[in-house]
Amino acid sequence: MNSCTYNYTENKGVNALADLFQGVAETMDHGRALDHLHRYDRLGLDAELESFSREVVDGHAIELQTIAPALRSIGAGRGLMQRVRTQARALLSLVPAEAR
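Above: the chain sequence. Below: its structure as tokens.
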């Protein structure tokens, strides 16, 4: 795992870039969790998607197109709870059409 830290900067561009990277990292972390749960613990998908949805609404998770394949697979997944499929499709609808 890679990381980068800094204590303080007045440079708004650096802060904006750090926020962008953190948002993408948050999305990628949730994407990995969704892939794992989809394969090994389908009942855990509901809580993970609920948590991820809150992160998206709060603006902490961005660039959803990076995990569009996982959301698409869950949204179309037979044998999954309807609620889970609906949550995944709702998140996928936030992805620009050309990136789905």
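Helices lie at 12-40, 45-57, 68-75, 82-92.
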